[in-house]
């Protein structure tokens, strides 16, 4: 693919320096294939700077998120070590353009997982599960984008925090969750919002990553997608999420 170097660099710089950029494909001319190629190339620039790939995020796996963002195709993005925020830490607002947060379930893999796998095969590759918060931060002005644009922008992914890991032997298909800001519940939901069962999100992750030539690896984290609409966050706020049986995860925006 040629001709997208410019937007690749613009997106990488926007993420690196937390600067917003205008939309570049409002006419929806970009193919999804080229959008993923721009994402790959922009994340490759981070890897060249020393970041390490640690997993994959799924997006628009819940109806709540599709409705909030007005898009209806499942998308995915790449996670690097620099995006992982420490549980309970103070996170600088200046890292972001206009951050939002959403409750997710995280999978930790103990085996590679590639291609068309069954739910049972996917489950057998899971080392542990944990409650997680994803900080999404579209690099586009006003958090507005088309489907190819958000894909090119690494599916808005900017940061993620993972709580304590738990055995995946308990049924996690319908765990209640409460996301709160400064102790006030702002979103209530269930892991069942994720394609009916978050395991389906992992099955989809195995398929899309293998199709991209980057199959899921042992040790990788897979974020299954936001189970509720995302919330804007502001400096001084403490953001937390408690998931039934799995404890809680949180951080402070400063
Ligand atoms: C796109 C990212 C979607 C999710 O969990 O559904 C996503 C966005 O909402 O900006 O991360
Ligand atoms: Mg998400």
UniProtKB/TrEMBL annotation:
- What keywords appear on the UniProt entry? Hydrolase, Lyase
Tell me where on the tree of life, at the top rank, the source sits.
Bacteria
Q: Which GO terms describe its molecular function?
A: hydrolase activity
The record places domain Fumarylacetoacetase-like C-terminal at 86-251
Question: What name goes with this protein?
Answer: Fumarylacetoacetate hydrolase family protein
């Amino acid at each position: 693919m040629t001709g997208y170097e410019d937007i690749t660099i613009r997106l990488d710089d926007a993420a690196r320096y937390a600067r917003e950029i205008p939309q570049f494909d409002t006419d929806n001319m970009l193919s999804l294939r080229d959008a993923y190629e721009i994402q790959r190339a922009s994340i490759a620039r981070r890897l060249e700077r020393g970041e390490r790939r640690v997993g994959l995020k799924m997006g628009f796996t819940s109806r709540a998120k599709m409705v909030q963002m007005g898009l209806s195709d499942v998308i995915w993005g790449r996670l690097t070590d620099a995006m992982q925020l420490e549980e309970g830490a103070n996170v600088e607002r200046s890292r972001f353009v206009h951050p939002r947060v959403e409750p997710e379930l995280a999978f930790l893999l103990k085996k590679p997982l590639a291609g068309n796998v069954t739910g049972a095969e996917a489950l057998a590759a899971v080392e542990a599960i944990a409650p997680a918060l994803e900080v999404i931060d579209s690099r586009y002005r006003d958090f507005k984008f088309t489907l190819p644009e958000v894909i090119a922008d690494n599916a808005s992914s900017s940061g993620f925090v993972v709580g304590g890991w738990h055995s995946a032997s308990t049924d996690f298909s319908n765990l209640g969750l409460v996301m709160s800001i400064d102790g006030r519940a702002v979103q209530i939901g269930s892991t069942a919002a994720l394609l009916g069962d978050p395991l389906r999100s992992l099955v989809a992750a195995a398929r899309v990553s293998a199709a991209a030539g980057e199959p899921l690896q042992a040790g990788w984290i897979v974020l299954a997608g936001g189970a509720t609409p995302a919330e804007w966050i502001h400096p001084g706020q403490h953001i937390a999420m408690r998931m039934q049986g799995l404890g809680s995860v949180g951080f402070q925006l400063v």
